[in-house]
């Protein structure tokens, strides 16, 4: 039986949250269809990330340091990676360009029309990169897609938890959503995407706890207070994926 991770009531399934503004095959998709490796958002936005303007009308952006770290480790595994080119000089500008494009065209999907519109911009964005547009476009799209998943995944979870967090058994009125609980829910969501094959156990909890001070942003909660919201977000995402990854019946 599914239980709501916040209220513990049976039968709830919070991950069926649609994200507006997605066209084509993804129209009406919930977080389960969108979820994959995601990054972190930085900035001082207050409010939800929802609809086609997600990431455009708020003062948040993709964490550039985290994205560099991710792509530096991942780019060589991508089918377009060419060993004659390196990350720092050649591929990093393409990934940065993809993040920039997603921010500038938040109300559009990647399609032939968008690609045509941004093709000429690569010559200005490429810096020292030796990649032609034909060589750079797949990396640019990779970053665009990851950035889009990041905004929309947090948009879906933000919308859900903003409405529900006060019903949680661990809710404390001295903490508010935007400053305190939202960073914890986002941390749990991001952690689940970073560790898709791990269970929530004491070892994982300790690892996440060690990194909480760096991830907490504006939250005033210590780890012993935040971990309950982090775990709820972890299980919320887990329920959107095939199977019961941690085999706890939730």
What would you say this structure looks like, in words?
The N and C termini lie close together (about 5 Å). Helix content is about 50%, strand content about 0%. The radius of gyration is 19 Å and the shape is elongated. The protein has one domain. The protein contains nine helices and two strands; from the N terminus they run αββαααααααα. α3 crosses α6 and α6 packs across α7. The longest helix has about 30 residues. A two-stranded antiparallel sheet has the order 1-2. The chain is mainly α and about 250 residues long.
- Taken as a percent bin, the fraction of beta residues is under 5%
Number of domains: 1
Separate helix tally: 9
Which stretches are low in confidence, meaning pLDDT under 50 for 5 or more residues running? Answer: 1-34, 45-58, 240-248
Strands, total number: 2
Radius of gyration from CA coordinates: 19 Å
Question: Strand arrangement, largest sheet?
Answer: 1-2
What structural class results from the helix and strand content? mainly alpha
Helix content: 40-55%
The description of the largest β-sheet is:
2 strands, antiparallel
The geometry reads as elongated
- Overall pLDDT, averaged? 79
The H-and-E topology, N to C, reads as HEEHHHHHHHH
Distance between the termini: 7 Å
């Amino acid at each position: 039986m599914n239980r709501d991770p916040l209220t513990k009531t049976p039968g709830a399934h919070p991950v069926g949250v649609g994200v507006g503004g997605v066209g084509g095959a993804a129209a009406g998709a919930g977080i389960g269809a969108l979820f994959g490796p995601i990054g972190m958002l930085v900035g001082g936005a207050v409010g939800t990330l929802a609809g086609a303007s997600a990431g455009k009308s708020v003062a948040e952006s993709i964490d550039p340091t985290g994205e560099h770290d991710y792509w530096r480790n991942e780019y060589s595994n991508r089918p377009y990676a060419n060993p004659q080119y390196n990350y720092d000089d050649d591929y990093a500008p393409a990934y940065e360009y993809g993040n920039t494009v997603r921010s500038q065209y938040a109300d559009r999907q990647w399609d032939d029309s968008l690609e045509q519109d941004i093709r000429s911009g690569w010559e200005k964005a490429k810096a020292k990169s030796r990649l032609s547009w034909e060589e750079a476009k797949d990396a640019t799209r990779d970053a665009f897609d990851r950035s889009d998943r990041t905004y929309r995944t947090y948009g879906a979870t933000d919308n859900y938890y903003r409405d529900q967090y006060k019903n949680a058994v661990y809710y404390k009125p001295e903490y508010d959503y935007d400053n305190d609980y939202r960073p914890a829910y986002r941390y749990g969501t991001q952690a689940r995407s970073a560790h898709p094959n791990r269970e929530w156990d004491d070892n994982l909890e300790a690892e996440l706890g060690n990194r909480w001070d760096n991830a907490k942003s504006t939250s005033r909660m210590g780890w012993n207070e935040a971990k309950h919201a982090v775990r709820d977000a972890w299980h919320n995402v887990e329920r959107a994926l095939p199977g019961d990854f941690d085999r706890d019946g939730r």
